[in-house]
């Protein structure tokens, strides 16, 4: 198994060299073995220079000499290479979501993920690590839906089948039909059934 060093847990004065994915597993309770989480069983004031922290420094910083507490409460720092990889992965996920949720308004065909990524670059879309991929995908769709967009898009229409007893349908049919764009088929017997298209 290849492990990528370079992630640190940091307090105001101390640093622990550790594996980021393992820290996340440790914090969620999946990983219990400290030797799998930390690279070196030392606490440093400066990892690159190899300067080891005095026990008093990290005890003062965390109120404990327990390394578990440092891993739980410390700030997780990620190196530039790993951060770049995370942002590239998030950007790809955003492009994939946009490709799944939209079509070209002229042809009604889906755009490829590559086309969406190219459009993201052309409009200077900046991926943010602090927002979810779905929230950013919806924001990107809003931007690409503008009339002068480099990649025209519109949301995919959902095909919805609604079935309910006829007595209930008489009461709420009008409200439901306000939510659909187009009705494909509709039947009313003992049950009311409709197949309609709604915006996503």
Automatic annotation (TrEMBL):
Pfam families: SBDS_C (PF20268), SBDS_domain_II (PF09377), SBDS_N (PF01172). Keywords: Coiled coil, Cytoplasm, Ribosome biogenesis. One of its GO terms (biological process) is ribosome biogenesis. Residues 166-193 form a coiled coil. Residues 92-155 form the Ribosome maturation protein SDO1/SBDS central domain. It is found in: Cytoplasm. Associates with the 60S ribosomal subunit. Belongs to the SDO1/SBDS family. This is 35S primary transcript processing-related protein. It comes from Trichosporon asahii var. asahii (strain CBS 8904).
């Amino acid at each position: 198994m290849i492990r990528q060093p370079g992630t640190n847990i940091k307090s105001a004065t101390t640093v622990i060299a550790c594996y980021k994915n393992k820290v996340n597993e440790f914090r969620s309770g999946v990983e219990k073995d400290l030797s799998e989480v930390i690279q070196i069983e030392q606490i440093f004031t400066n990892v690159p220079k190899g300067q080891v922290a005095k026990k008093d420094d990290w005890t003062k910083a965390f109120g404990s000499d327990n390394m578990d507490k440092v891993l739980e409460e410390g700030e997780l720092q990620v190196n530039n290479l790993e951060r770049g990889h995370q942002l590239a992965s998030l950007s790809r996920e955003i492009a994939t979501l946009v490709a799944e949720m939209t079509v070209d308004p002229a042809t009604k065909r889906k755009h490829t993920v590559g086309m969406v990524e190219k459009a993201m670059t052309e409009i200077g879309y900046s991926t943010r690590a602090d927002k979810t991929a779905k929230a950013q995908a919806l924001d990107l769709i809003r931007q690409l839906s503008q009339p002068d967009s480099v990649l025209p898009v519109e949301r995919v229409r959902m095909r919805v089948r609604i079935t309910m007893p006829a007595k209930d349908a008489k009461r709420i049919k009008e409200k439901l039909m306000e939510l659909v764009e187009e009705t494909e088929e509709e039947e009313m017997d003992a049950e009311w059934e409709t197949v309609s298209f709604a915006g996503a």
